[in-house]
Structure formats: structure tokens, C-alpha cells
Design a protein that fits this description.
Elements (H helix, E strand, L loop, with lengths): L2 H11 L1 H22 L1 H4 L6 H25 L3 H35 L3 H7 L1 H19 L4 H14 L2 H13 L19 H22 L4 H20 L3 H11 L4
Helix pairs in contact: 2-4, 2-9, 4-5, 5-6, 5-7, 7-8, 7-11, 8-11, 9-10, 10-11
Length: 256
């Protein structure tokens, strides 16, 4: 085997680790101006639950990087041992994420943005449900590493929509003390499409990796990726339907 071929294999072998590092940068970079930099300046405006939400979801990207690093360094036993902590973290994220989404919807309704708040709630609610499903599929497929790691990749990339959306928010509204999406009226669901496109591009990068490595597209990355991207775009028409409005009321009843 030539030196170039060996170098190419090593490059492909570290793909998921590089992507995990990129996910961390996206997560912390996206929220840096609207959250992390506002904490020491004491300018962040929001309910205490948002801090727990931010801590858990940020911790997940670090956890994903740590787990990916362990696999890249052949520390499989440690990776499996830490998996129990990952299940606990994902479970906490599901309940806190759902509670935060419902709380934000109620806050928007209380401010008089009834229809807009219910419509936008489809973004975080569907997002956390998809994340939970993908993590669940990753857990049940733990004995099939190639399937497991792709479900975990999709689960992680699916929750980056919020961080990516912050870049688009800052481009439109700019920064400033206390400025963040929650202090404005609920945005139209269509404003999330830009972040959805970037999510899709990250999945395309993973598909290209699979093709270069194996000469074919892994079914989990292909069909799971299509499902994640499809949701990003289907949210727009679904958010305005009577069926979703009824579901928003149903979710909202849990915290009424």
C-alpha cells in the first residue's frame, strides 16, 4: 500500500472525530453571543430552566466528542462504560428539552403571540423527540458499531439546529446585552430553514465519507439523514395545520 493510500485511510478514520470537534465549535460558537458571553456580564435575560437546558445540551456535544475520541484511540472498553452516562444525559435532555419548549410556548402565548408561539413550538418539540428516537436506536444497535455510531452522529447533528439558528439570528438582529431569540416575538418557522440547510450539508459530508470509505452509502446515514433533513423542511407547512395546533395544546396541557 502506498504512503498516500495509508494517509487517506487515516484521514477517513478520523472523520467522525473531526466532525465531533466541529459540532462542539458550532454548539458553543452559536450560543456564545446570545448566552455564554452574557453570563459573566450578567446581561442574560431568561428563566432558570434555560440555564439547565443550555448546560445539558452543551454537555452532550462535549460528551459526543469524548466518546468519539475514545473510539479513535481504540479505548473501546472506556467508551462502553461511559455509554451509561450518555443514556442518563440523553434522558435528562429529553425531559428538560421538552419542558423548556412547552414553557417557551406558554411564555409566547402569555405575551399575546398565541398562533405564532404554538406554530414555532413544533421546532423544539419535534427536535427533541427525534433526538430521543435516534439515541434510542443507537442504544439498541450498540452491538453493531457501524450502525451505532451513525445513529449517534445523526442524533447529535439533529440538535445543532438551534445553535446554527443563532448565527442567522445574529446576522439579522445583531448582538447586544440581553439580546436573544426568546426576547423577541416567536419567529416564523420558515426562519429555521437556513439552519436546516446547514444540518443537511453536515449529513451530506457524512454520506460522502461513507462513499469514499466503503464505496456505498450506509443505509442508516442515508435514510436517517433524509428523515432528519425532511423534518427540517416539513415543519414549515405542518406548523400551520389544525392538527399541529391541537398537538401544541396537548403538549401545553402538561404544564398548564
Amino acid at each position: 500500500m502506498t504512503a498516500a493510500a495509508i494517509s487517506g485511510q487515516r484521514s477517513l478514520g478520523t472523520f467522525h472525530l473531526w466532525m465531533a470537534g466541529l459540532f462542539v465549535l458550532i454548539a458553543f460558537g452559536g450560543f456564545s453571543v446570545t448566552y455564554w458571553l452574557q453570563l459573566p456580564a450578567a446581561t442574560f435575560v431568561g428563566r432558570p430552566m434555560l440555564h439547565l437546558h443550555g448546560l445539558l445540551f452543551s454537555a452532550w456535544t462535549l460528551f459526543y466528542f469524548w466518546q468519539t475520541w475514545q473510539i479513535a484511540n481504540r479505548q473501546t472498553a472506556n467508551h462502553r462504560a461511559w455509554g451509561v452516562a450518555g443514556v442518563s444525559l440523553a434522558t435528562a435532555m429529553f425531559f428538560v428539552g421538552l419542558a423548556t419548549a412547552i414553557d417557551s410556548m406558554h411564555e409566547g402565548i402569555a405575551e399575546g403571540h398565541v398562533e405564532a408561539a404554538k406554530a414555532f413550538a413544533i421546532v423544539p418539540i419535534s427536535g427533541i423527540i427525534v433526538f430521543a428516537i435516534l439515541v434510542g436506536l443507537a442504544v439498541v444497535s450498540v452491538k453493531t458499531p457501524e450502525t451505532h455510531k451513525r445513529f449517534m452522529f445523526l442524533a447529535t447533528v439533529s440538535i445543532l439546529q438551534a445553535a446554527l439558528g443563532r448565527f442567522f439570528f445574529l446576522a439579522i438582529f445583531g448582538g447586544g446585552p440581553g439580546n436573544r431569540p426568546g426576547v423577541h416575538p416567536p419567529a416564523p418557522v420558515a426562519t429555521t430553514l437556513g439552519a436546516g440547510v446547514v444540518v443537511g450539508l453536515l449529513i451530506v459530508a457524512a454520506l460522502v465519507y461513507d462513499w469514499r470509505k466503503t464505496g456505498k452509502l450506509h443505509p442508516v446515514m442515508l435514510w436517517g439523514g433524509l428523515a432528519v433533513v425532511a423534518l427540517e423542511f416539513l415543519r414549515v407547512p405542518l406548523s400551520a395545520t389544525p392538527q399541529w395546533m391541537a398537538m401544541a395544546d396537548w403538549f401545553g396541557a402538561f404544564a398548564a
